[in-house]
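Z., the sequence and structure:
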Amino acid sequence: MKPVLEVLQATTEYFAKHGVESPRLNAEHLIAHILGKKRIELYMEFDRPLGERELAPLRDLVRRRAQGEPLQHLLGTVEFHGRVFATDARALIPRPETELLMELILKEPLPEVPCLLDVGTGSGVIALTLAAELPSADVTAVDVSPDALALARENAARHGLGERVKFQQSDLFSSVDGAFDLIVANLPYIPGGEIASLSREVQRDPLLALDGGPKGTEIIERLIADARGHFKPGGKLVLEIGIGQETALQTELATQNYRDIRAVADYQGILRFLFASFSS
């Protein structure tokens, strides 16, 4: 038997030696997960003895985390905009930047009953958050990956939104009909040649969700062109983009006759989001 504090300290040291970012935080999350507790509750249970029944599964999780398996995959969930979503290797793990994108979108003026489209929905967090925060909205979510769509549907059921969001397999707009007040897309934007240099954790995300083409912007550029036929009057396009891509993509938006184009920074001051309007 070993007390929680001793196991926490040993796990933290082990993670630090294996290059795990935020080793103490990771250790706390995994121990809390094994005990079925909230992380903050560990501080009230440092003296609690852990037997082999808890230690055996913890060792397996610790080993996998040290080998680069993402914490969110091990926990099976991720918190996004105040809600807990299932996450696994079928889709990109939602990032904090995308939570900020949600906050920005929810501040945008929209019609009373807006029609919204999430392109490349992945685990569904954007579409489902929009549906939950905007009860009158008509929300559609598409993805080229059937595995990602299966995960998104599971998350919809988890939050009782299965009847609110329409999910459809589509390569961008290939199977999309209709027009929308707002189209949002967090598409792959990593240049293909840079993927091998990404962190071990990021490389566990699906390649389909990472590889944006040789420049990293090819898929986004295709969306910018194809979206033009799917806007209601004054419709808006919102994009999450990679570092240093804002100038080229703003130029592409202007070339494709979008207007009111603006770049917005993320928490680190990086121009991470593009907003634009389109009227045919």
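The mean pLDDT is 96. Residues 2-67 form one domain.

Let me know what you think.
H.
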